[in-house]
Task: structure prediction
Amino acid sequence: MPDPIAVVSVEGGVGRLRLNRPEKRNALNSDLARAVIDGMTRLDNDPEVVVIVIEGTDGAFCAGADMAEMLAAEGAGVINANVAGRATDRVEASPKPLIAAIDGPAYGAGALLACACDIRILSDRSRIRFPGAEYGLVVGAVGLPRLVGPALAKELIFTARVVDAEEAQRIGLANRVVSVEDLAATVDEMARTIAAASPDALRWSKATINAAVGGGDAVGLERQADLLLRGSEDNKVRFTAATQRITGRSSQ
Result:
């Protein structure tokens, strides 16, 4: 049996979705796009999963959409054959915190996949590129300005130039840059830290922040969240534990 084109696993509150098409540097064809959509649905619906890590294989996060497949589909008269876009849209729709563990290229649809995540941790050999304008498409014009601002987003999209890991961190496209050897451990540590937090508070926090940067009613959403969460069993248990820790430290 061949290896699955996307590997889904769950451990300790951390769900993982690993793109597994290394011979094509994890380019998103229709099979991989469907596997991403199915994997995200599985992880979103699993109550044990608090945070989701999306990662690639063999030094490649995702080289973009499978251009050969798209060209063949368009040649056959298939309209709107953007399967990669549907996969990245599904990732962005997740209510759970998402970490992109990026090693190697994240180009085109791979860059969109990275931007759809909440946190991006890069190895020092990672590269990000938004090449849509080079071949007549719009890629990243919605998500990228939220991360780096409109002026820089225009530069990166208009020129389609490669952004290395150091620049990505400097401009806010990467949360952290670490060595290749430290990438897995750094991602694991952050994922475990997030997984220890309140799942409900995390989902409401993500929704509120997204509303704040997207022009929604973030103030109303935060007030609604606290009305619903304050006094819940989860809130009482966590608040009591935190109070006991603080009291214990202050008495020492």
In short: Residues 6-195 form a domain with the 2-enoyl-CoA Hydratase; Chain A, domain 1 fold (CATH 3.90.226.10). Residues 233-250 form the longest helix (18 residues).
